[in-house]
Amino acid sequence: MGWLKRLFGLEKNENQENVQPPAYQAPVAQAPAQAQAQPAASPQTIPPERMGLNGEYDQSGLAKRVAQAFDANPDVADIETVYVAQLGTTVVLKGTVPSQELVNKLVTIAKGVKGATGVETNQVTVG
Questions:
Q1: Residue 64 above 80 pLDDT?
Q2: Most CB within 10 Å of its CB: which of 7, 15, 30, 99?
């Protein structure tokens, strides 16, 4: 079972491995006809840590995109004893892994996800 399915109940899209993340800009609602004479407002943007898998606002967007990145990496795709959460822009890993090498690999992958400013591993047990 993949990371997205196990953690969030989401199925992995078969083409996700090579898909680039969407641009980090939310669409702006159309203004009513009478208000269109005014200058256009700057578009609203979604913070990278709140960007979902398909460009939508998602409170757990960063954690889901990290899980997606783990699914795409064959070295860590089958780990079922670690969980991913987020605190703002920090990815939080929890659980047990067999080696420090795997922890390091998970950290490297998570740090590479747009919006991640750090990775917390103090809740990961090696053994």
A1: yes
A2: 7
